[in-house]
Every structure is written in structure tokens, then in C-alpha cells.
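Q: I'm writing up a methods section and want to include an example of the input and output format. Could you take the sequence below and give the corresponding predicted C-alpha cells, formatted cleanly so I can copy it straight into the document?
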Amino acid sequence: MDDRAALLTEIAAELRETARWTGRATLSPRVAAALAKVRREAFVAPGTEREAHQNRPLPIGHGQTISQPFIVALMTELLDLQPQDTVLEVGTGSGYQAAILAELAGEVCSVEVVPELAVRASAVLAAEGYDGVALRTGDGSLGWPARAPFDAIIVTAAALDVPPALLDQLRSGGRMVIPIGPPGGDQQLLLITKDAAGTVERHTILPVAFVPLTDAWRN
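A: Here is the clean output for your methods example:
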């Protein structure tokens, strides 16, 4: 078994172990295929390629990380993406999650607050064939109003609460996955749903650990 196949086997085992909290015992075929196709080694920091298929986060510079593959898999699975969906990603980071989303959705918009990471992610995404991902530098807590509304929103850093702009930009019937909690403290992964009437519900999934989100809406 090669390293990528071994990683997928490990993700599958962790999904089964956490199913009582997440409600997801297995990956959908589309999400599994996306994880098998996207080359994580292309998105990690130079010099860490040999660690790319370990099931853990890795530093990518500027105080940021590329998320643990299991968490990427779970967050993606919870979005229930359809081929025609438009998705907003808050926190491009290395570009790995954006590449996974691009395999599953019709349009991917991603916002990264660190200019250097945005430049590198854009270059790697293009090199890997994902040059259709719309990427801009800015404060992701404010969303991307010009591209809204979104069928799904994924936030890859922990906020103290759900940014109002993201709720506003989530389409009725949409889903958002976001970690909530203080830096270095107790954080929970939430699934946010908005029904056709605009009613928002929060579902706690499981404990997580993420770098903090820059949320200028509080300032």
C-alpha cells in the first residue's frame, strides 16, 4: 500500500471511530475520489513533502498550517457539495482544501488574509490544474459580497463566533462548516444550516484545534 492509500485508509478508520458525533461513518464516493486525486504533497511547505501523507497538520509559514487530512475530509463531507454549487472558502492557506472543493463544486471562491500565502496558493493551484479557483487577498470574515450568495461556506480557522457577513452570504438551503472557539482553547466544529425561510441552526460536531481567524468585523 502506498502512502496516499494508507492515508485514505487511516481517514476511513477515523471516520468510523467518530461517527457517533459526526453522523458520518464513511465518505461519499465523490469526496473519497477527490481526496485520492489531489496531491497533498504539492501543497505542503517546501522540504516537508515526505510528511505530506501523515494524518496531521503541517506548518506552511506565517503562523498558518495545512489542516489534518481527516479534518479536511470531514469538513468537506459535511458540506454535501453538488456539482453545480458555488462555495466560499475562508482561509486559502496552502490551497489544498480549495483543490478538494474544486473537484466537487461548480465554482470555488477563496479568500486568504496573508498575501504571501495567497500568491503561493494561486501558483500551486494553477500548476496542479485548478486555475479556475477564484482567489483574492483580504479579510475572509467579511466574505466575498460580490460573489454571494453561496451554496456552501467552509472556514479553515477558528472564530470566536460566526461572522455575520458569512451568515448573510449563505444561500437559503445552504450549509457552513466553521470551527468556533478561542485561540488555544476549547474549539468546536460547527455545522450551520439555513433553511428556505432563512432560519439558522447550529449543530456541534466534535472538538477541533485550529489557528485563529482574523475577524475585522469585531474591530
